[in-house]
Amino acid sequence: MMEKNIETFIGCESSYEDADMVLFGAPFDSTTSFRPGARFGSAAIRHESFGLETYSPYQNEDLEDYRVFDRGDLELCFGSPELALADIENCATDILRDHKFPLLIGGEHLVTLGALRAAAGRYPDLHLIHFDAHADLRDQYLGAKLSHAAVIRRCYEILGDNRIHQFCIRSGERAEFDFAAAHTDLHKFNFDGLEALCRRLKQEDTPVYFTIDLDCLDPSMFCGTGTPEAGGVDFPALSDAITTVAETNVIAADVTELAPGLDASGASTAAACKTVRELILAIGKNRRKRRVSE
To answer: HSE on the CB side for 40, CA within 13 Å?
Structure first.
């Protein structure tokens, strides 16, 4: 008997009703400021994930032991960032309402704002942990308030002072770093300070939104992105940092800024797939531990 051809991220084949985590794609890159193509990231991650094993030797965990539903990509309005963000927010809101974990796959980094709006609406004391090469704290970019270059500034307007924690940042205007010094917890170049932060957030059981812009990775291993910046971290450092953040009360997350067409070798897409696998497993493991302890 023939079955429908439905492509999911590897191992993410649970039904929605049974799932603890819901993966959904946001193929949007209409505000990209340099090299476009991130709209194809979520589909490429899903398609190329079948080059992975479901088992992670980093964590000794297997995707087959977790219940993850892959909802596929949203159909977003490319001509209107606000309409696209509204659709992302509505999807994340539905997932959170059903007591499931939303995992958003971009797309450019602006898509984070839609999911964060949903999370902040449910968790008023929400904190944001942000991995990125870029500060993304501009008030506007070429007159546009809704831009991937301004996404964390828009998140700040929702969360306020001292609730945004930024790591690996190595690019931005001087004004962005001045703003961060007054309003966010910004760590340049690497993950120094992450363990201490996560210990504190874990002790306080603070709800966390976790956003990973993949250009935190050095372009020598991740060149398939719109605005590559030399000097980034390597994959083992990112993998360790993901497991550190996952020990906190992460209630939603995203992975953004793969532009697969900019790396014909496929190495960047492979790194993105592995990042998503490690994130699913780390979050899933901690959510399972929290349920057991309750």
So the answer is: 15
The alpha carbon of residue 62 and the mean position of all alpha carbons in its chain are separated, in whole angstroms, by 20
- 217: Cα within 13 Å, side-chain hemisphere: 30
Asked whether the bond before 226 is cis by omega within 30 degrees of 0, the reply is: no
Domain ranges, residue 32 = 21-293
Encode pLDDT of 60-97 as tens digits.
999 999 999 999 999 999 889 999 999 999 999 999 99
The pLDDT tens digits for 18-61 are 999 999 999 999 989 889 999 999 999 999 999 999 999 999 99
- φ, ψ (nearest 5 deg) of residue 57: -70, -20
Check residue 42 and give left, alpha or beta (phi > 0: left; psi -120 to 50: alpha).
alpha
Using only C-alpha atoms, the chain has a radius of gyration, in whole angstroms, of 17
For residue 9, being part of any structural domain is answered with no
Domain count, the chain: 1
Question: Cα dist. 111→105, 108, 254 in Å?
Answer: 9, 6, 9
Give domain status of residue 14, yes or no. Answer: no
Tokens encoding 285: 């493991």
Within a domain: residue 108? Answer: yes
Q: Go through 188-205 and write b for each residue having 16 or more CB atoms within 10 A of its CB, e for each that does not.
A: eebbeebeebbeebbeee
Cα separation of 38 and 110, whole Å?
11
* Amino acid, single-letter form, for residue 144: A
